[in-house]
Structure to design on (1059 residues):
């Protein structure tokens, strides 16, 4: 019996999921997935590569053929299947939250209360869209009648990251399936377990074979095979900007598949001196340290107005020092380990660079345990815009606090980045809030809050933080082709002409 | 004596002549809304056009003088940084019309800088009311309409397009498109969003920024309007590269952009070549979006360049090999006519050309016979001459490519029904050509010909024709001719194409979105959908102390 010591892994298969069946890798290779709290192997998982991707794409294409059960299915029934999947995930919520914490290292309380809650809401939100994504009828000039059909694009490759494995799976599957696409999903090699468990639930929910296929594997092999595949109609990727470039290039070199990207960020969080200071300190702390700092939208450039700077820094350091780092299964723990050794080392490298380049280390600055990939909550003060820690994405628990004087200055500095994912403003002044929310080049602007996500609100990047939007109604556009159908009419009758043929009403006489 | 522009304007339009069967039936397609009402054979009863201007055509200008040949940046005219120029030819005579400044990387850099400056936060363009942007676009449309005859004559001379089509279709469509988008400017609504929790959330639909726009040579003015209309109504700034074959009308419109009062730097127009100026746009680190209309081959390069540079947004309108399916129950004469114009319109130089015509077995022979008769009716010649129904191909490269594909059709065993070679000794004229007994694996059935060459194939069943129609990497458009409602709906669902026409072909209007499935493109132009390509969505979420529904 394979076991993690905490929970049984016998409830699902650790293979490649194609056509609602489990397969070994064509190469028979497997790879280890590691528990980041201990550095030990949890289990071996089948390693998908090009040959497996080809099999999965073939299955998906077959499920998408004209006349297939999936293509003929009522849109309302697609919605029902998505709702059923959400119900099954809710039934197994504790198991999935445990598995997520084991594989990813995030605190169990967060897995259970935040990740799983958002997964359920996202799937149910898109379930409801399935029969409500309307095309339009269009008043075209001339004797024609015109309408649009919002059709599924076809085989969608979805490459998801390791920081929110279950949630990113839901963000990707929800809109793709609601609009009737078929999916080949490559899950991150660091965190393949929960996605494979969900594969079981997809089958149990009754999705037809081939509609969702899940291939665990590595980016340069399985991921690259998807991005350059000639039979894949669309690729959606969440991950680094560096890999985002490769994916867009691969699409241009292969078949012009549609590309949506959710990439990195270096999001500014601007604290004006009139803000509610306690709240701003707490939110700025949360903005950066949430999920061990492993958020693409992390508030990793905290700009604080000059007159409150010393006090803000002092309180932020006190807050960071109080942060509880440790076993993610302990209910008091706020911060677990980083996801793997590579990230752990990269973050420590950035911390060293910060020290070298002259930023002031105010707390933390090193590993937080003898084993596992734990990093101390770290704060740098007196950070300058040209320092590496102020311009590159660290993806760890390392906070950079900068000082500013005027609102014009902070806009310029905040926008002086190749990234444009998110931004936040803390102020009580309506004018300042409105000015900044217009001026900031970011796909999401939070005012007096941070990391507020709702399935209803679109999310995505300006500039090199991505292309396209996920979530909300906007997220549906990324999974549909618009077809215009125009039909020749013998005669067109606008309704005002019809009305003129009506008799005049009778006059009622007393 | 040459008439000056102002003299011409005072004088108004030259003696109009009215469209009639004699002078126009062979050259004008049935599918354009502005023309369809004048076509008696298509309508049960004769109707007079609602707008008296419809259907009237003046004579082209005989003494057109080209005034604008330089690079347009910041509402000013510039020589190229390199000092180079390139010749612009009249494809009907192969003679040079004029030399135009040749923009390259350095000129693109200057244009992008100007566009970036115009897009600065707090700039006149950024602080302008949306309604005022709309008013400026309407003004531009008015100015194009005022200079209708100049632009139509210029377009006809430079692109080889029939004057009647340039006047009635090209310029009118450009004007209609600009007005359509002008009126969107203050109606692009964001949403307020019922987000969970004690928050208030809304979206702003913001302009993307500096947009590179690379135009083709087949419809120079229409594609210019389709590109700048949505870009400007959303508040972007643009750097336009017109095709090297046909830069003149875009440069003329540049002068009208200045006259309309659009602020400096908002529209910049850089004539030049694809591998130099075009490549500089698509790989530029300070261009936020690139929109391209042209070949699939170049579309691939543009998407790749975006991936290699700054992940700029990409929208592409590319090639096609569009199927047109005629069922035995269709109105045969109407189907022959539409299918004919579907491929022969504008010398076959349309991305939507109906270049794979699938005809049901039982009517195949009659259909071929009627199509050949129809194709033989053409007079080729100078497109400014009203007696002419087909002009030249755009340039020697296209001309040679088309003739090569015609030869391949003969060699691979298709039956040449008519045409099949060049026409005349001067200019890039090709005979209207019809091939029957074409099979799917022949080159002429797979490759985009972009010339006056019709391929007619035979089919038996619906399932078969759907499969064959979809068996291509293109997916731009398709046509269906049938009287059967069930067939029309089944096939319009099944075809992989961004536009499906039922009992018509090629009907365009600014209200309907247009774009490709598969390798015919990414994204949509025209209609409300076309706005998405020029907007970034920003979600603003504000904490509130208490929420009430």
């Amino acid at each position: 019996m394979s076991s993690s010591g905490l929970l049984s892994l016998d409830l699902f298969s650790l293979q490649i999921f194609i056509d609602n069946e489990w397969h070994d890798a064509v190469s028979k290779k497997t790879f280890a997935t590691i528990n980041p709290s201990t550095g030990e192997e949890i289990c071996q998982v089948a390693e998908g590569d090009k040959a497996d991707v080809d099999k999965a794409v073939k299955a998906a294409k077959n499920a998408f053929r004209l006349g297939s059960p999936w293509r003929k299915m009522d849109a309302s029934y697609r919605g029902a299947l998505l709702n059923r999947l959400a119900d099954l995930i809710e039934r197994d919520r504790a198991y999935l939250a445990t598995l997520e914490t084991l594989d990813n290292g995030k605190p169990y309380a967060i897995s259970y209360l935040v990740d799983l809650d958002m997964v359920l809401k996202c799937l149910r939100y898109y379930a409801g869209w399935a029969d409500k994504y309307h095309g339009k009828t269009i008043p075209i000039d001339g004797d024609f009648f015109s309408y649009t059909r919002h059709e599924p694009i076809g085989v969608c490759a979805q490459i998801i990251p390791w920081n929110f494995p279950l949630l990113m799976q839901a963000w990707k599957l929800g809109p793709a399936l609601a609009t009737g696409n078929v999916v080949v999903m490559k899950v991150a090699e660091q965190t393949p377990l929960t996605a494979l468990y969900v594969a079981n639930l997809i089958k149990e929910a009754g999705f037809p074979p081939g509609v969702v296929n899940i291939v665990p594997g590595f980016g340069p092999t399985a991921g690259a095979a998807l991005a350059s595949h000639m039979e894949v109609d669309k690729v959606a990727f969440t991950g680094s900007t560096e890999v985002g470039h490769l994916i867009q290039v691969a699409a241009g070199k292969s078949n012009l598949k549609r590309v949506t990207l959710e990439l990195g960020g270096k999001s500014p969080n601007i604290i004006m001196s009139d803000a509610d200071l306690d709240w701003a300190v707490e939110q700025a702390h949360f903005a950066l340290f949430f999920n061990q700092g492993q958020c693409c939208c992390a508030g990793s450039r905290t700009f604080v107005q000059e007159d409150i700077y010393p006090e803000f820094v002092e309180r932020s350091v006190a807050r960071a020092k109080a942060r509880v780092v440790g076993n993610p299964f302990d209910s008091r723990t706020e911060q677990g380990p980083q996801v793997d050794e590579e990230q752990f080392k990269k973050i420590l490298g950035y911390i060293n660079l910060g020290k070298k380049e002259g930023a002031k280390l105010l707390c933390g600055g090193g590993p937080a345990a003898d084993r596992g990939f734990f990093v101390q909550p770290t704060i740098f003060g007196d950070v300058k815009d040209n320092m590496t820690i102020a311009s590159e994405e660290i993806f760890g628990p390392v906070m950079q606090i900068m000082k500013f004087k005027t609102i014009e200055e902070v806009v310029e500095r905040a926008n002086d980045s190749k990234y444009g994912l998110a931004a936040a403003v803390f102020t009580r002044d309506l004018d300042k809030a409105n000015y900044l929310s217009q001026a900031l080049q970011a796909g999401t602007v939070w005012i007096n809050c941070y990391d507020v996500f709702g399935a209803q609100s679109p999310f995505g990047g300006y500039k090199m933080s991505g292309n396209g939007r996920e979530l909300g109604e906007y997220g549906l556009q990324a999974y549909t082709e618009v077809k215009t159908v125009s039909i020749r009419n013998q005669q067109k009758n606008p309704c005002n002409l019809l009305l003129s043929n009506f008799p005049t009403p009778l006059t009622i006489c007393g | 004596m040459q008439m000056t522009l102002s003299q011409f304007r005072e004088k108004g339009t030259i003696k109009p002549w009215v469209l009639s069967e004699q002078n126009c039936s062979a050259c004008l397609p049935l599918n354009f809304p502005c023309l369809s009402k004048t076509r008696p054979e298509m309508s049960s009863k004769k109707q007079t056009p609602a707008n008296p201007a419809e259907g009237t055509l003046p004579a082209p200008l005989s003494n057109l003088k080209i005034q604008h040949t330089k690079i347009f940046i910041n509402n000013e005219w510039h020589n190229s940084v390199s000092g180079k120029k390139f010749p612009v030819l009249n494809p009907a005579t192969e003679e040079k019309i004029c030399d135009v400044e040749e923009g390259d990387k350095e000129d693109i850099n200057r244009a992008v800088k100007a566009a970036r400056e115009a897009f600065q936060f707090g700039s006149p363009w950024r602080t302008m009311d949306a309604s005022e942007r709309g008013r400026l676009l309407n003004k531009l449309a008015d100015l194009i309409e005022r200079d209708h005859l100049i632009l139509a004559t210029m377009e006809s001379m430079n692109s080889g397009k029939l004057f009647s089509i340039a006047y009635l279709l090209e310029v009118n469509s450009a004007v209609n498109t600009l007005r359509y988008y002008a009126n969107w400017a203050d109606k692009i609504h964001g949403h307020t969003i019922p987000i969970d929790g004690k928050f208030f959330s809304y979206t702003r639909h913001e302009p993307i920024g500096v947009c590179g726009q690379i135009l083709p040579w087949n419809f120079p003015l229409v594609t210019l309007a389709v590109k700048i209309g949505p870009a400007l109504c959303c508040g972007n700034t643009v750097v336009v590269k017109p095709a090297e074959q046909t830069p003149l009308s875009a440069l003329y419109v540049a002068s009208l952009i200045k006259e309309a009062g659009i602020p400096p730097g908002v529209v910049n127009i850089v004539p030049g070549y694809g591998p130099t100026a075009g490549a500089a746009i698509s790989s530029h680190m300070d261009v936020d979006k690139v929109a391209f209309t042209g070949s699939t081959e170049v579309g691939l390069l543009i998407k790749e360049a975006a991936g290699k540079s700054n992940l700029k947004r990409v929208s592409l309108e590319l090639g096609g090999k569009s199927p047109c399916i005629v069922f035995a129950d269709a109105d045969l004469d109407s189907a022959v006519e539409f299918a004919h114009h579907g491929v022969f319109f504008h010398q076959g130089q349309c991305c939507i050309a109906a270049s794979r015509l699938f005809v049901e077995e039982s009517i195949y022979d009659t259909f071929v016979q009627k199509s050949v008769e129809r194709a033989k009716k053409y007079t080729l010649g100078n497109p400014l001459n009203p007696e002419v129904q087909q002009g030249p191909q755009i340039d020697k490269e296209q001309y040679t490519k088309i003739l090569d594909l015609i030869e391949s059709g003969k060699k691979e065993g298709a039956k040449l029904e008519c045409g099949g070679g060049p026409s005349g000794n001067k200019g890039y004229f090709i005979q209207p050509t019809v091939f029957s007994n074409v099979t799917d694996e022949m080159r002429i059935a797979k490759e985009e010909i972009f010339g006056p060459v019709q391929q007619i194939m035979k089919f038996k069943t619906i399932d078969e024709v759907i499969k064959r129609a979809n068996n291509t990497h293109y997916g731009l458009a398709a046509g269906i001719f049938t009287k059967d409602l069930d067939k029309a709906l089944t096939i319009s669902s099944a075809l992989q194409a961004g536009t499906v026409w039922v009992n018509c072909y090629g009907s365009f209007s600014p209200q309907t979105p247009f774009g490709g499935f598969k390798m015919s493109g990414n994204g949509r132009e025209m209609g409300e959908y076309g706005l998405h390509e020029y907007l970034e969505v920003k979600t603003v979420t504000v904490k509130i102390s208490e929420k009430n529904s």
